[in-house]
Amino acid sequence: MALSFWSPPYCVGKSYEKTWSFEEWSTLLSEVIARHFPVIVPGGFLAINIADILTFPDPSMPRIQADNVATKRQRVTRQQILAAAAAHPDYNRYQLAALLGCSEQTIQRRTEHNNVRGGKYQVQRKVKLVGGLVQEWAEAAGFYMYDRRVWVKDPCWVNSRWHSLSYRSVDEFEYVYVFWKPGITTVDRARLKRQEWADWGSRAVWSIPSVRSNDDHEAQFPIELPRRVIRLFSAPGELVLDPFVGSGTTALAAIEQRRHYLGFDLEPDYAALASRRTTHTPALI
Ligand SMILES: C[S@@+](CC[C@H](N)C(=O)[O-])C[C@H]1O[C@@H](n2cnc3c(N)ncnc32)[C@H](O)[C@@H]1O
């Protein structure tokens, strides 16, 4: 292979990775990376699209005590709640909230002194950086870190449930890490036009809209991502691999850019979907 480009499971609980531990996920990725080394041509590239894990559970992390100003502005006092509860012993928290004109959380916080973020009994979650791990696994396999780019996607509020009651930011960028296998690399500036080099070829930050949620695949990347990587790091007629091919986006970009491709997926339905999508795209002669 001249180039392998892929986006693996991110260890964030998608349906195809729900049952894996972080250790199992790490083993999968480090093995996949190690197995690339013998099949990438000398001077060729391995490019990985991945994101940091924004909600990594850590049982040793102290509970985050949110001193929430918005809650404090709520005028309902503990005494008022206790009085209302005494007057209506059959009312639950929601009914008391409706009676007093506040939220159910206010009732709970005032009565149980609970201001813990992220669920009372849940393990706290932190940000886990993934790039350093990927670099370690790739360098252990014999690759060298050649470059890294940032893909700015649409803000994904669902993955950032903590944003409204914390200072944390929304999930809106990922990385492309590029590793190089020592050997002779053809540098061909003619692969892109002058304006393309200026617009994205030489730029570290790529703004590309995300694929809207769809019924095909829950974690598709936009075709513009493999299109750019393929155009930069391979030549027409070369072979491009995606061992986590999903709905076949890398393969479609490869066909479009007149490269050969090879793709795998663990889920037979996704492999079938990728086959269908590529079969309906005119193949490279
Ligand atoms: C992030 S998605 C890739 C999506 C793809 N780039 C697209 O645009 O459709 C990761 C894919 O890896 C697949 N996968 C998970 N574990 C795998 C394994 N051990 N071997 C091959 N594929 C696997 C999942 O089924 C999923 O389709």
What is the CATH architecture descriptor of the largest domain?
3-Layer(aba) Sandwich
Mean pLDDT: 90
Oligomer: single chain
The main β sheet shows up as:
7 strands, mixed
The proportion of residues forming helix, as a percent range, comes to 25-40%
Q: Strand arrangement, largest sheet?
A: 7-5-6-2-1-8-9
Task: Tally the beta strands.
Answer: 9
Structural class: alpha/beta
Task: Tell me what you see in this structure.
The chain is α/β, with parallel strands linked by helices and 285 residues long. The protein folds into 2 domains: 3-58 and 127-279, 3-Layer(aba) Sandwich (Rossmann fold); 69-112. Helices cover 34% and strands 19% of the residues. The protein contains 10 helices and 9 strands. It has helices spanning 22-36, 69-73, 78-87, 93-100, 104-112, 131-141, 194-201, 224-233, 249-256, 268-279, and strands at residues 3-6, 45-50, 53-57, 125-128, 144-156, 171-180, 205-207, 239-242, 260-263. The protein is elongated and about 80 Å long. The protein starts with a strand and ends in a 6-residue tail after the last helix. Bound molecules: S-adenosylmethionine (SAM). S-adenosylmethionine binds next to loops.
